[in-house]
Structure formats: C-alpha cells, structure tokens
User: Fold this.
Amino acid sequence: MKENFIICINAVLPLFFMMLAGFIARRAGLIREEDITRINKIAFTVFLPCMLFKNIYGADLSKVANIRMLLMAGLGILGMFVFGWIGINLIVRDRSKHTAMIHCMGRTNFALLGIPIAVNLLGEGGDVSPMAFLITVTSPVFNILVVVLFELYRGGKVKAKDLLLEIVRNPLIIGATAGLLCVLLNIRIPTAVESTIRQFGNVATPLLVFVIGAFLKFDTFCKQLRNIVIATVGRLFVIPAIALGICYALGFTGIEMISAIGLFAAASGIVCFTMTAQMGGDAELAGDIVVMTNALVPFTMFLWLMLFKTLGVI
Assistant:
C-alpha cells in the first residue's frame, strides 16, 4: 500500500509543482494574460506535436496500433458527450449554459496530462507510444463532436468540409501522423533533426502545465458557482467512475488502463475556453470550469491512480 502511494504521488506531484510555478509567476507579474495565449499557441503548434512524434517514432507498430484502445477512445469520448448532454439537460434549465458545460465535461486535457502521467508511472524507459497514437483518434473526435454540439444548439448545419480541414490542419494530428508514417515506411530521419525534435518534445509538458497554472484565477467563481460545481463533479468524478469502471470490467490493464485514466479522468482542456468563445457559448463559464477542474485534477488524478494501482491493473 505504501509503495503504491509513493508511485502514484510521484506521478502527480511534478505536474502539481509545475502548475504551482505558473500560478505564482502570474501572481508575481512575471507573466501577463496576453502572454498566456501566445505561449499556449506556440506550445500546441510546435512543442506538443514534437512530443507526440518522438513518442511514436521508432516504436513497434504491433504495439502502437492497439485496436481495443482506439475503440475505447472513440466510443468513450462519444459517451462522455452524450452523458454530459443528458445530464446537463436534466439538471440545468438555462440553455445558454448548456454548451459550455457539456463541452467542458466531454473534452479533456488528454494530450497534455495523460502522456506525462504515463511517463512518470512507467519511467523514462516505458513505452507510451500506444498512448501517443491515440491522439490520431481523440483529437478529431473531440473537434467533430464540439462542432456538432454547438451547431445543434444554434440550429445550424454541420459542414463536413470545414470539419475535415480542421482535422487535417490540427498540429497534434500532423505530429502523430508524421511519427506513424515514419514507422510504417521505416523512415529514419537525420540524427540532428531527431535530436532537435526530441528536445522540443521535452519542452512540451513543463511549458504547457506551467501555462495552465498561469491561467488559473478564481475571482469570478461566485457568479455561477452551482454550474461550475456540477460540471466539475461530472468531469472529475462521475464520468471517470463510469468509464473507468467499464474499462476495468473489460479487463484493461497496463498501458491500456493508464491511457483510459489519462483520457477519462483528466481536467477540461484549456481549448474549451477558446472554442466556446469562438462558437458563441458562455466563455466565462467555460473558463471557470477549466480553472476549477485543472486546479483540482492533481488531487483527483492521484485518487484514481491510487485506486487502480491498489487493484493491480496499472
């Protein structure tokens, strides 16, 4: 029990300290709000794609293409959005709040939090390539469902062409797909280029988690506290309990279960705030939910890891 506790706390604490550093830097005036947006964009378009590439490049294809994990990811994300839609429609009467709440309950920081936690659990020599490859499923499914959600509430039509273009241009898809193509075609890139990509990839986690910490601010919570609490409980407790319970019942172990925890138990993605604003939803509510879930996720993630470590499946 004590060993499991130490392993799980060591998997989560580094992320907590990075987040805390970002929060302190923002409070100390070392980073401004406009800086957060710019840094976040750079990280998502440069460093995170490099991290995904390096985790897939040179991997064993038979391990990377885990069909059961891919199905789990695709169907699981669909399930999260459906559950959020049903739950929020039953509990919250104000329809203007629905899209922000459903979006934040259904979309997680999987790429940002899932892989670092897996690396911390498995050690630097652990193979997280199957988890990195899941991005090729999770990212497009997230984007498609978000667009469908907002268009349904606006009474508009979903344009397949726009969805396809958004998927093709997604930097995360580009990074993961490039790594996969190198594996499929047995392409070896020059050592200097590989080293550059790996070093860029190593920047992704500390920089993005630092930015999450800088993003945290709690001064608007009182305005919509009930809705924030509902979405946060759904995101960090109810959905993980259902999804991870199903995965456990299906016999998921090792990297499969770690991937499921990273996908279903992570906080709401920071992109929930920007996309909700762009698509005409309640951006302030979405931002507050993102802040609340990301502030609490180090503690709730530890609880989920501890549970399944004790059960002997990770």
Notes: The chain has one domain: 2-213+220-305. DSSP finds 15 helices and no strands in the chain.
